[in-house]
C-alpha cells in the first residue's frame, strides 16, 4: 500500500462533469449530486485503512453539510481485480450497512478519477454553488487511525464556510491516503 498526499487547492477550478452508476442501480451526475450551496466530491473505497478510520466522521459531516445546502457524492475508482473488497457488491454492502447519506458511485473506467486528478483514498474536492473548487484538503488530523474525538473538523469547517460565503479557507492541509489502484495498461 502506497501512501500519498493530495495537491493543494486550485481555487476556482471547475468540477468535471460525470455520470456514473450508483449502488442504488441509478445513474448519478454532477448536477444531480450538487446542493444549492455546493458539492463535496469524495474519492473513497472499501479496503483502505485511511478511509476505514474516518468513514463514521465522513458520514456525520455529510449529514450536517446537507442541512447547509452542500450535496455530497462518493466515487470508488479502484480496480477491484486485486482488491476484491472494493467490488461493486461490497460497495453496496458497506453503503447499506453504514447508511450512506449520499450516492456511492462506481468509476469502473477510472476516467472520472483521472479528470479530477484524484490521487488517493480518501481524496476530497469541495466545490462552491457554481462548482468552482474551494477546498482540497483533509477531513481532519486522522491517518490510519482516527484522530482524537475533539480534533478540528477541517473539511466540515471549510465546507460550512463555502456554504456561507462561497469561498473556502486559504489555509488548507493536504489530505493523505492510499494510492488509487489504477488499472494496468493493456
Structure description:
It contains 5 helices and 10 strands; from the N terminus they run βββαβαβαβαβββαβ. It is α+β, with helices and mostly antiparallel strands and 186 residues long. The chain has a single domain (3-179), classed as 3-Layer(aba) Sandwich (Glutaredoxin), CATH 3.40.30. The strands form 3 sheets. Strands 6-5-4-8-9 form a 5-stranded mixed β-sheet. A 3-stranded antiparallel β-sheet has the order 1-10-7, with helices on one face. The longest helix has 18 residues, at 49-66. The two termini are 22 Å apart.
Features:
single chain; 186 residues; alpha+beta; Glutaredoxin; 5-stranded mixed beta sheet; 3-stranded antiparallel beta sheet; 5 helices; 21% strand; Thioredoxin_domain; AhpC/TSA; oxidoreductase activity
List the helices and strands and how they pair.
Layout lengths: L2 E3 L13 E3 L5 E3 H4 L4 E6 L5 H18 L3 E7 L11 H11 L5 E3 L4 H6 L3 E2 L1 E5 L5 E3 L18 H12 L10 E4 L7
Parallel strand pairs: 4-5, 5-6
Antiparallel strand pairs: 1-10, 2-3, 4-8, 7-10, 8-9
Helix pairs in contact: 2-5
Query: What is the makeup of the main sheet?
Result: 5 strands, mixed
* Level-1 CATH class name: Alpha Beta
Q: Average pLDDT across residues?
A: 95
Distance between the termini: 22 Å
Annotated CATH homologous superfamily? Glutaredoxin
The strand order across the widest sheet is 6-5-4-8-9
Q: How would you sum up the global shape?
A: globular
- In the predicted model, the low-confidence regions spanning at least 5 consecutive residues are none
Give Rg in angstroms.
15 Å
Strand residues, percent: 15-25%
**Order of SSEs, N→C?**
EEEHEHEHEHEEEHE
Number of strands: 10
* Overall CATH architecture: 3-Layer(aba) Sandwich
- Please give the domain count: 1
CATH fold call: Glutaredoxin
What proportion of the residues is helical, as a percent range?
Answer: 25-40%
Number of helices: 5
What would you call the structural class? alpha+beta
